Amino acid sequence: MEDALKQEAYEANMMLPRFGLVRLTWGNASALDRNRGLLAIKPSGVSYEVLTAADMVLVDLEGQTIGNGLKPSSDTPTHVRLYQAFPEIGGVVHTHSPGATAFAQAGRPVPCYGTTHADYFHGEVPVTRPLTREEVDTEYEWNTGAVIAACHGSRDALGTPGALVHSHGPFTWGRSAASAAEHAAVLETISAMALHSLALNPQLAPVPHYLLDRHFRRKHGRDAYYGQ
C-alpha cells in the first residue's frame, strides 16, 4: 500500500518536468490515501533527474513524517492544510510555472477569457490576499495553505481546482495526484493565453457566464458528454 502511494506521488512529480512546469527543484506533488491518513510527497531539494519512487516521503495528516528517510518538501504543511480543507481531493501540486506565477506576483486572478479555461475551471482562478508579516514569520507554509482555503471560500474545490498565492505562485489539486498535475499544466496554459490576450486587447472582458457554464458542464456536469 505504501509503495503504491509513493509510486502515485512519484509519477505525478515526474509529470511536472515533462509538462515543462518546473525548473531545478521548483515544484512538488503529493498523493493522499485518505483512508489511512497518509500522504506521499517529493523530498526537499532532490533533483528530478535522480528522483525515484522510493525517495517519496510519507507524512500523516498531522504533518508528522513517517519512518526515517529524506526530509519532505518544505511545502508539506501547505499540502496538509489543503487536504484538511478540501475533503474531495487526493492530490496537490505546487509549481513556479512562469505564466501562472506572473499573475500571482501581480496579485491578479486569472479571468476566464475563453473556452479552454472554461473546460477546466468554472470561473476565474482566484488569488489570495498577501500574507501578513506575522503569518510569514510563524508557520509560513501552514498559513499559505490557510489563505488558499480562505480565498477559495464557498467555491467547489473540484470546480475550481487551483489558486494563486499572492507574490508566490500556483497550487492546484484534484481527485488524484495525476489530475492535480494535469490541472497545473492547464493553469499554466490558460495563464499564458490570458497574458497574450491582454497584450492584444487590454480591455478584454471575461466570457459570458452562459458560455462558461456550457463548456464546464459539458465536461464535468451531471449530464457531461465531452470526452470518453
Number of strands: 7
Number of helical segments? 8
In whole angstroms, how far apart are the ends? 29 Å
In percent, how much strand structure appears in the residues? 5-15%
Question: Order of strands side by side in the largest beta sheet?
Answer: 4-3-2-1-5-7-6
- Which word captures the global form? globular
Please report the first level of CATH classification, the CATH class: Alpha Beta
In sequence order, what are the helices and strands, one letter per element?
HEEEEHEHHHHEEHH
Poorly predicted spans? none
Largest sheet: 7 strands, antiparallel
At CATH level 3, the topology is L-fuculose-1-phosphate Aldolase
Estimated helix fraction:
40-55%
Q: What structural class should be given to the helix and strand makeup?
A: alpha+beta
- Could you tell me the mean pLDDT? 94
What's the architecture in CATH terms?
3-Layer(aba) Sandwich
What is the domain total for the residues? 1
CATH homologous superfamily annotation: Class II aldolase/adducin N-terminal domain
Cα-based radius of gyration, to the nearest Å = 17 Å
